[in-house]
Amino acid sequence: MSPVALERVALKSLMLLPRPVLSRLAAGVETRGRDHLDPHMRFLLALSSAKPTLNSASVPEARKLYQDMIALMDVAEQSLPVVVDHQVPVEGDASILVRRYRPENAPRLAPAILFFHGGGFTVGGVEEYDRLCRYIAVHTNAVVLSVDYRLAPEHPSPTGANDGLAAWRWLLDNTAALGLDPDRLAVMGDSAGGNLSAVVSQQARLAGLPVPALQVLIYPTTDAELKHPSVQSLGQGFGLDLPLLTWFRSHFITDPAMMEDYRLSPLRNPDLADLPPAILVTATDPLRDEGLEYGDKLRRAGVDVTSLDYPQLVHGFITMGGVIPAARKAVDAICDATARQLKASRV
């Protein structure tokens, strides 16, 4: 058994302790009040304080740390009848991987979710999110297509956004061949992936392409400047700290003028009319305020927004469902809301 697998077994065993015990153990090492959080989450944060941070490592080391972290906490792998890798052409005479997951109970003409992983545009990928995407496919009965967009610093912004739009074009061009319902195509992502989901929705409209039927924005970053109040008030002690946010930004923004670009800061787009309905997911998170502001701005533009708020959880919870019961419950609720809206969008 690998060290990560052993650590996962040990962590899951610790998480079986009674909730009051976990709260007391967490309180014994916490340097700030977090008693509003789920006890399992508090205990996990207390344990993680002894681990190296991503921004203390080189980029290759950070990618390995992130991979191990997700492997430690994510849901168990589920078997699916169809898991296929596609190579999708992107700018620069290159291609990116898009992995397709088709669950057993998907209808013949299935809804689909184009999924963008998180990781500050710098870490993460299709492999790290493989178990989560399998889980989402099973729990929505939708085909999930996970996009391995290119990462910074090798490929700074707006490469990720451009790759995302290329993946959307490819999906539109291949719905019939893949057995997908063109009227029930969604975008979904967490953190940086939530940003890309919002950006693809905007850029598809600007390019004159069909827009998604739904955008699922899971604690998205919507403004690159890191100036919203929650960045300061929640930027320490809740997993995603301000130094890590700044480290990510130093890799994917090479030109400060990019902060104004809607492909990086979708919140700054003054015209959000005619965008798809949104499911907006928030938590106790430094990105909370910019996510909420984007939701409010969508509503003012006439876009239907469903809010799912999880103040007892923190940024990154979507890949913690294997060890945090409340995180698993939240992922299930996101899947249920997505499935309902995709079913309702059928024409």
From TrEMBL:
Residues 113-318 form the Alpha/beta hydrolase fold-3 domain. GO terms for molecular function: hydrolase activity. It comes from the Bacteria. Keywords: Hydrolase. It holds the Pfam family Abhydrolase_3. This is Alpha/beta hydrolase fold domain-containing protein.
